[in-house]
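Action item from last meeting closed. Structure (296 res):
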């Protein structure tokens, strides 16, 4: 049985400590054996606590979170509104419930299965894709023309995000076995990173939509190490957040990780949206103030 975050927090001892409060992560500064290991002194500790359900956002913050039905004036959504749930307010991290049907999940898994290969990451210095011990999973990419369901998922992502998927990456399907995980990282490319998304010509990854295509019996949470937030996978739910401020600067509070799967297996799919084409859908907000600390 999967317990939502707040129930776990109440069931377990809540180790919320002053020094572990929301704090922005800094850029990776060092590479050891080509691996960004600059987990801040207490980031590893937080990562592990969040994965165990031993750390969570304070009750006062939780109490401000709301859920609602949304239609965004889209006729289709008026008939079938999205079930939107706030998981965090700043940065805004939203959950959409029941946005991928079991039949769609079965089909997507079936299409991806024969193509699953060990997932790669982009080398920070060289820009080359390579296998890394800090990301252990298998993944495959699905294109919209391959099946109407893949196209339908993109459309749903547009409804959820209010952004265009015309410049998005293909749908990435990921399977984690026992021990599979992805250590703390940013989804957006940072200044100075080699080759980052340049070949795509669509700018940086402005937003992430992460569909949970399975429950996970134990482990496998998505955790935000600068926010003390854990999202526990629930089949059919999608998480959505912006990786960039409207100024195009990266939001360093979005640093996140996929916790090791302890029992069972975990399936997700990622839709990464890019900056190009969003200019009028998410215009630059000149009032958005970004702290120097975040930009350093
Ligand atoms: O699987 C998860 O929970 C998160 C995956 C992730 O962060 C990624 O693939 O970039
Ligand atoms: Fe990620």
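Sequence:
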């Amino acid at each position: 049985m999967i317990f939502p975050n707040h129930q776990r927090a109440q069931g377990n001892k809540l180790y919320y400590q002053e020094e572990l409060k929301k704090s922005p992560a800094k850029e990776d500064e060092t590479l050891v054996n080509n691996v960004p290991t600059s987990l801040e002194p207490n980031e590893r500790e937080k990562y592990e606590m969040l994965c165990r359900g031993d750390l969570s956002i304070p009750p006062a913050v939780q109490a401000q979170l709301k859920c609602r039905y949304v239609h965004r004036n889209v006729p289709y959504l008026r008939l079938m509104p999205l079930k939107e749930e706030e998981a965090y307010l700043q940065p805004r991290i939203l959950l959409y419930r029941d946005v991928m049907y079991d039949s769609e999940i079965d089909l997507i898994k079936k299409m991806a299965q024969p193509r699953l290969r060990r997932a790669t990451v982009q080398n920070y210095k060289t820009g080359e894709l390579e296998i890394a011990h800090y990301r252990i999973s298998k993944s495959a990419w699905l294109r919209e023309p391959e099946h109407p369901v893949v196209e339908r998922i993109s459309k749903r992502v547009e409804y959820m995000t209010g952004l265009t998927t015309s410049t998005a990456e293909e749908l990435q399907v990921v399977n984690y076995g026992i021990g599979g995980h992805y250590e703390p990282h940013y989804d957006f490319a940072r200044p100075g990173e080699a080759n980052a998304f340049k070949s795509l010509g669509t700018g940086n990854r402005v937003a992430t939509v992460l569909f949970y295509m399975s429950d996970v019996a134990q482990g496998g949470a998505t955790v935000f190490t600068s926010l003390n937030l854990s999202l526990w996978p629930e089949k059919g739910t999608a998480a959505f957040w912006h990786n960039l401020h409207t100024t195009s600067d990266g939001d360093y509070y979005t640093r996140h990780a996929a916790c090791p799967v302890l029992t069972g297996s975990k399936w997700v799919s990622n839709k990464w949206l890019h900056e190009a084409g969003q200019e009028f859908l998410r215009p630059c907000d000149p009032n958005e103030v970004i702290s120097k600390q975040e930009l350093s």
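Note appended to the action item: The pocket of 2-oxoglutaric acid (ligand 1) is lined by residues 182, 187, 210, 222, 256, 258, 268, 270 (CB under 6 Å).
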